[in-house]
Amino acid sequence: MKWKLLSSLVVVMLAAGVVWGKDSVMSQAQATFKPVPVKPPVLKNNPATPGKVALGRMLFFEPRLSASYLISCNTCHNVGLGGVDIQETSTGHGWQKGPRNAPTVLNSVYNLAQFWDGRAEDLAAQAKGPVQASVEMHNTPTQVVETLKSIPGYLPLFKKAFPRDKDPITFDNMAAAIEVFEATLITPDSRFDRFLKGNPKALSAKEHEGLKLFLAKGCSVCHSGVNIGGTGYFTFGVKESPAADVRPAEDLGRFKVTNTAADKYVFKSPSLRNIELTPPYFHSGKVWKLSDAVKIMGTAQIGITINDDEIGKIVAFLLTLNGTQPNVVYPIMPPNSNSTPKPAL
Amino acid sequence: MKWKLLSSLVVVMLAAGVVWGKDSVMSQAQATFKPVPVKPPVLKNNPATPGKVALGRMLFFEPRLSASYLISCNTCHNVGLGGVDIQETSTGHGWQKGPRNAPTVLNSVYNLAQFWDGRAEDLAAQAKGPVQASVEMHNTPTQVVETLKSIPGYLPLFKKAFPRDKDPITFDNMAAAIEVFEATLITPDSRFDRFLKGNPKALSAKEHEGLKLFLAKGCSVCHSGVNIGGTGYFTFGVKESPAADVRPAEDLGRFKVTNTAADKYVFKSPSLRNIELTPPYFHSGKVWKLSDAVKIMGTAQIGITINDDEIGKIVAFLLTLNGTQPNVVYPIMPPNSNSTPKPAL
Lengths: 345, 345
Fold this sequence. Notes:
- By secondary structure, the first copy, chain A, is an all-alpha fold.
- Chain A is built from 14 helices and 2 strands, in the order αααααααααααβαβαα.
- Chain A has helices spanning about 1-15, 15-20, 25-30, 50-60, 75, 125-130, 140-150, 155-160, 170-185, 190-195, 205-215, 255-260, 290-300, 310-320, and strands at about 235, 265-270.
- Chain A has a two-stranded antiparallel ribbon.
C-alpha cells in the first residue's frame, strides 16, 4: 500500500510536470538555446555611443553609399521586413542578381561570423562588402569617402562619433558606425524566449511538441544558442544532396574561404529567429515555404523523412521565434553640396 | 523748424523700419507667401485617422507594392533625403530610367495638383501612377490587391483604416491611406516661415536682400503661396527656350494632358520649399547647382540676366526654405503567407 501510493505519486508528478514546474523539454531547451538579450551586446574595440549609433543608423539608410545613390544597406536588409528583401537572391546595381540570398540583419550580431560562408569576422567587416561588390552597391572606398566628405553635414556627425580622430570620415569608421547600429537590431521577447525564461504557458501544446521534435530529431545540433543557428559551419547535404536548384553546384560555400576540400558546400547555419519573416530560405533562396525547408533539412541533414504532422508541429514552434521588431526612426540625411559626385548609373 | 523736425522724423522712421516694425519686404512677402502650417490639412473626402495614417505609412514603405518587391514610394520619394531620390530622372523596374525628375513628396499636399504636368488631381490619384508605370513599380491594381490580400497582417489594418468597408483591401483604399500619410509629410518652421510670422531677425541681411530680389525680379509670380510654387502652370521658356538638355524637345509637358497647343512645354511650377535638399533641378533633372537653376530661370522665364551677386543673394534666401523634416518611424510590415505571389523580376 505504501509503495503503491508512492509510485502513484511519482506517476502523477511526472504527468503534472509541465504544470507545476519545469518539464524536461524546457530544461533541454534552456541548455541548448538562450533568449535574445534585451540590450545590444558591447562590441570589442567598437564601443557604442549615442552619436555613433545615430551616425550608423543614418549610414545604414544612406543610398549615396552606392554608386547609383539607389541602394542602401536597408534595400536588402529591410528593417521593416525582418531584415531581408524577400528576394531569392538580392538585386543590385544595374538590376544584377547577386549570388546568394540576403541573410537577415536582425540579431546578426550574435552570429559567429557574417555572410553565408563566414568570410567576414564581424559586422564592420561585413558592411564593407556590399558597398564594393559590383553586383550590389558597385562603389569603391575612395568614392564613398569622397562622397561623404562632400556632404558638409556628415563631418560634425563623424567628429561626434569618432572624437579622437583628426580625419574621422574614413571607410573604416563608416563600417564601425554601421556595426554599432546593426548591433541594436535585435528582437527580444519572442514567445519562445518567454518559454526559455521559465513561462511554460508561452507555448501552445502544438508548439511545445514542435520544440520537442526539434530537439529530438537533431535540428538543434546546428541550430542552437541565442540565434538558434549562426554558431558553426555545416555541410549542406551531409546525408543527401539537396536538389540542384536548392544547392547549386557552382556555389561551393566555405570552400572558397578556406580552400579546404572538406569545406565544399559548407555554410554557416542560419539563425532561425524571425524565420517566418524571412522567406525564401537557404543560401539559394529557392525554397519559399517554411514547411518545405523543414522537410529538406530532414532528408539533407539528418537523413530522415519528417512526416507532415511533425513538420506542422516544428513549423508551429518556429513561428514562436518572432521577437519584438526594431523601433527605428528614419534618419534625415544631410544634403549634397555642389562638389558631391553625381550618381553613376 | 517744426517742419524740419517732422520731416527728419519721417526719414528716421523709414530708415528704422526694419528694426521697429514691419519692413516693406516683409509686408510684400506676407501678401505673397504663407508659412507651412504646423498641422497637416484636412483632406476632402478622406479624413485622417490614426489607423489610416499608420497604414499609409506602412504602404508608403512597402516594396511589395512593386512587381519586383524592390521599389516602394520611399525609393524615389525618400523622406530622409528631402522627399526625393537625387537622380536626374528616377530609376525603376529593371533599372529603367523614368522620363522626369521625381518631385518631392514633402509639402506636396499643398500643390494644386500632382506630377510635373498636374495630371493627378490629388495625392491619392498620384499614388496609383507609379505603382502601375512600367518603368517604375511595374505592377497592376489586380496584382497589388492580390498581394496585399495574401499577407494576413494587412486585413486588420485595412479594416481599422476603413471600418465601413466590407472588403477594405482595394487599390483605391491603398491610395487613400498613402494620401493621408503623405499629407503628414510637411516641413513647418523654416527660417523663412519665422520671418513670415513676423520675426525680422529670422533672415540675415543677405537672405533678406535675396528675398527682396526674388520679389522684385518677378520669381514670385510663379513661386508663391504656401509652397512657394505649385500654384499654377507656366510655360518653361516663356522668354527664351532653355538648352535642349534642360528642356528636352520630346517632353511637351501639360500638352499631353490637355492636348492644347498653348500647353506645349507647360509645367506646374515646383515648390521651392527645401530646395537645397532636392537637386537636381527642373523636370529634366539636368541642372545640379541651385545657382545655375536661378540663372536659367532669369533668362528663360523673365528674360533677364541675373548677375552672380544677385544669384548669390537669391540662393541664400532659397536656403532659408528648409523646414523641420518629418519624424517617421520605420514601419514593421506584416510577413508573407504561402499564397503571397513571388516577386517578378
